[in-house]
Amino acid sequence: MQFKNRKLSLWFVAMVIGVFFVVFYFINSSFYINGNDEESIIQTIQSLNLFEDCSIEIVEIKDIGEERLVAFLSNNLPAYIHFNKDKFGNYKWRSAEKKEEPLSHFLISLSNGLEEDYHNLLFLTIATIDNEIPKMELGVNQHVFLEEFVLNKNSATWTEMPKEEKHLTYSYKYYDRNDKLIENED
Questions:
Q1: pLDDT by residue (tens digit) across 113-164?
Q2: Rounded distance, CA 163 to CA 54, Å?
Q3: Are 118 and 110 in contact (CB under 8 A)?
Q4: Which of 103, 113, 169 is nearest to 141 (CA)?
């Protein structure tokens, strides 16, 4: 009789320990939920040294495969944050960057293993309300992409980069409201 009780006790202890580990693993993973909704995205952004004590305005959220890209303004300056989805379906931040110009560009490297419809590089352009350039021509090797921006409005434009080439060369041409080329000051 004692042997049976001892065996039951061991099974009970093993089950309690197993349940404890499962609950701990689940609770521990839930502390890292930082890109699942707009509120947690803003909290995550403001927790980064680069964006401490900054006002944050989400411009656009874009989901591509298992990744989430968020274009936003940090104290009215263009920025983005990149999240990856974990095995629980929660988003963890991967990288972030900000720039100083009212029309700013970011080249974002996406993870491998994406669906065939998506490219590994994404070119993000964020225009702030202060942007005065309504049109841009982006040259990538032999490809040309024409991007238009609504003036007096914060916006994000996403351009998939050509995947078939190993080396990419970029060129920009900016146009004013009358479609006249704006000369580069370089």
A1: 445 554 588 999 999 999 999 999 999 988 999 999 999 999 999 998 887 7
A2: 36
A3: yes
A4: 169
Identify the H or E element spanning 134.
none
CB proximity list for 48: less than 8 A, separation 6 or greater:
93, 96
With CA atoms as reference, report the closest residue to 35 among 82, 87, 88: 82
Q: Hey, how many other C-beta atoms are within 10 angstroms of the C-beta on 78?
A: 27
Rounded CA-CA distance 90/7 in Å is: 39
* Residue for token pair 């994404």: 122
Q: Six-digit token pair at 17?
A: 């320990």
- Annotate 53-98 with three-state secondary structure: CCCEEEEEEEEECCEEEEEEEECCEEEEEEEEECCCCCEEEEEEEE
Gap between the Cα atoms of 128 and 152, Å rounded? 7
What 3-state DSSP class applies to 17? Answer: helix
Q: How far is the first Cα of the chain from the last one, in angstroms, to the nearest whole number?
A: 90
C-alpha closest to that of 111 among 95, 88, 90: 95
pTM: predicted TM-score of the whole model, two decimal places: 0.78
Strands 135-140 and 103-109: unpaired
Which residues of the chain fall short of a pLDDT of 50? 113-114, 118, 186
